[in-house]
Amino acid sequence: MDAQEAVTVLQLVSSATVLCYASLLDWRTRRVGNVFWMVLSAAAIALLVARVIVDEAPLEYLLVLVPVLVVLADVYGPSGESGALSRLLPIISYAVAILLTVYLAYLWADDRYFAHLLTVPVTMILVVLLYMVDIVRGGADAKALIALSIMFPFYPHIGSLPLIAADNSFAEILFPFAFVVLVNSAIIVAFTPIAFVVRNLAAGEFALPYALVGYKLDAGDIKTRQVWLMERMEDGVHRRYTRPRRDESLSEEVDKLVSAGHQRIWVTPKVPFIIPMTIALVFTAVVGNVLVIIMGF
User: Fold this and answer.
1) Quick one: how far is CA 91 from the chain centroid?
2) Same-domain check for residues 126 and 173
3) In angstroms, what CA-CA distances link 239 with 10, 117, 129, 179, 219?
């Protein structure tokens, strides 16, 4: 095993270890503390530096870590403060990160090696945007993807793995490893509607589109479950919706529904997304980039 493969093994082992333990917590509590992703991000930065040194690449390429650190400072910085300045700082942070990334791309993006490194801040910013528009729902999920973005600017190649490899590095730059892990995770989660449909048909409570994304529970059971509501009372009017709201007070909303005479309530489970992400990490490392086949690379 050469030095480059040794770094790759460390990247995979450290990522899989943290994700496996986080998956256990995600299953039990649906909460994974920041410390896991901060440690994984720190390890990823150290291993990225090691990879650049091992590859004998120009050390100035490590300037790519500047926008990376800017994004991390916002993600893990103080939160909960009010005021115009606290609302303006994230905008300034990401504007600086984007401008720095564009400038670095102007300097060295024609070098394929640096283009791989440049996928790190680009993917991180993309993950933040996906979180802001509610495509990536959990904060821990987004932070895990951010850490993986730093960890894998290059696809992990060990011996004959992965089984599916791109014929050129352009495909790996266009579809960074962390992005493919996200896509594979989403594909795994996409099978959950089948389970919902079977459960709802068996219970005789099938109603579209709610039966595709959730199921009904007795009001008394909801407060002890890891779920979001798909019903609520708003100004005395009963409403249903398929996209859960992060800001809901579960207990309070259930009490309002019960007071209005609703005993069986539509809910959607808080999917422990770290679990499919862990499976997708292993799958993508072993099998490879399935998007290469889909997109014809």
Assistant:
1) 21
2) yes
3) 50, 47, 29, 35, 16
Q: What residues form DSSP beta bridges with 217?
A: 265
Domain hosting residue 205, numbered range: 192-269
Q: Where are the alpha helices (DSSP H) in 109-214?
A: 112-132, 139-151, 169-174, 177-189, 192-203, 210-213
The answer to whether 211 touches 196, Cβ cutoff 8 Å, is yes
Both 103 and 227 in one domain: the answer is no
Q: Which helix (H) or strand (E) holds 227?
A: strand 227-229
pLDDT in tens, 267-295: 988 888 899 999 999 999 999 887 777 76
> Could you identify the residue written with the tokens 């459960």?
199
Please check whether residue 295 is in contact with residue 46, taking contact to mean a CB–CB distance below 8 angstroms.
no
Q: Do residues 76 and 152 both lie within one domain?
A: yes
Both 93 and 204 in a single domain?
no
Q: What are phi and psi of 287, to 5 degrees?
A: -85, -45
Nearest partner of 24 among 13, 14, 36, judged by Cα: 36
- Same domain membership, residue 107 and residue 198: no
> Cα 31 to the chain's mean position, in Å?
14
How many domains would you assign to the chain?
A: 2
Helix, strand, coil distribution of the chain in percent, nearest 5? 65, 10, 25
Please tell me the predicted confidence (pLDDT) of residue 247. 62
pLDDT in tens, 212-249: 889 999 888 887 888 888 888 888 888 888 877 766 67
Angle (CA) 138 139 145, round 5°: 90
How many Cβ atoms sit within 10 Å of the Cβ of residue 98? 16
